[in-house]
Amino acid sequence: MEVWGFRDLNRKRTRKLELPPVDMFVTTADPVLEPPILTVNTVLSLLALDYPADKLACYVSDDGGSPLTFYSLVEASKFAKLRVPFCKKYSIPVRAPFRYFSGDSMSSQDTSPQFQQDWKKMKDEYEQLSQKIEDAAKGSIPCELIGEFADFMNIQRRNHASIVKVIWENKEAGDANGVVPHLVYISREKRPKHPHHFKAGAMNILTRVSGVMTNAPFMLNVDCDMYVNNPQIVLHALCLLLGVKSDKDCAFVQFPQHFYDGLKDDPYGSQWAVLHEYLGRGLAGIQGPFYGGTGCFHRRKVIYGLSPYEYDEEISGKLSDQNLQKTFGSSMEFTKSGAQILSGSKSTSSSPHNLLRSVEAANQVATCVYEYDGLDLWIDDGGHPHRTHYPRERLEINQLHADPARISGLRALRRACDDDPA
């Protein structure tokens, strides 16, 4: 039995307060190819991590703009209020419920009557959640497209306004037992004339939206079918990110993917053992391996373009109003959050975030024109690109930018738009 004295408890509490916030991103694009139950399990595994809940926020990007995905996440947030306390009370090693309940999970845990009773309750609740999502997928969502679902009425996957919904907001400070982190749903704006850049575009939106909402200095991104199998993964990553002498020495930390239910001895190499166990570790000695696209913790200021070789004077130059607006766009909230990250300052507010107040700013930075300085980009019948502050006022691009490289870049954007099925 572990006995904590007053001084030990106070030190433990202080260490928790010193831990940095982390924003977690989950990306999904199609409720048919990527069934919402997969996304739900990934999200549930993130919400139940062994880390102070008031320092975590989970953002789900849905490029499908699906009311089914949104509905599934709403129901999952209700289940999370039961699941998270259960996981932390009994130190459950596997936090994704479909994997936990698929094996003989009870035999390796506490055999007390209370645990068995709670285990059965969790299993029943998860089966009910799965059934609700399955029924909804068959077209029987138990709600009309009103209220929170009104934004999905007559929605077209490739042509709709941005949708940002705060599904659950944690208003409790500290890490009280059973507290669930923030959960936010995002479906970025899509327009036929604008390139969307697939998952990379979704990651840009997630970075901006989280910047105006919680603005954590570190970001984790995972695919919707990549649940977290280690509840202490954040602490392990921060040991590397915070353990270096200088921020310049470590921009990101990523964890290899492992696939469950594979064939014995992996005859087809589906576990990518050579890549992860040998090439990845070998490349760590020469500036590190390339970014694998999932299971990665990013240092936000690196994503914002801060070079490790810039000096304080150069950083100060980037913090001028003109440079901040050039880099972060017209959103005052996003510009302010970017300055905070680049300067390395911590939030001066000691109260929990009020996410609902940030929804308007989040919708602004989730538009498809925001990356182009708020200007409208369109192509005429002859294939010539145009940009204007007002969509109805069509000006030749040469009147706005005489730089040929800039013009050719816009033509490249047009080609990307033609090739982008998202």
From TrEMBL:
Pfam families: Cellulose_synt. The keyword Cytoplasm does not apply. It comes from the Eukaryota. Gene3D superfamilies: Spore Coat Polysaccharide Biosynthesis Protein SpsA, Chain A. The keyword Membrane applies. GO terms for biological process: cell wall organization; cellulose biosynthetic process. One of its GO terms (cellular component) is membrane. It is a multi-pass membrane protein. Keywords: Cell wall biogenesis/degradation, Glycosyltransferase, Membrane, Transferase, Transmembrane, Transmembrane helix. It is found in: Endomembrane system. Its main location: membrane. GO terms for molecular function: cellulose synthase (UDP-forming) activity. UDP-alpha-D-glucose binds at E34, D63. Mn(2+) binds at K199, D223. This is Cellulose synthase-like protein H1. It comes from Rhododendron griersonianum.
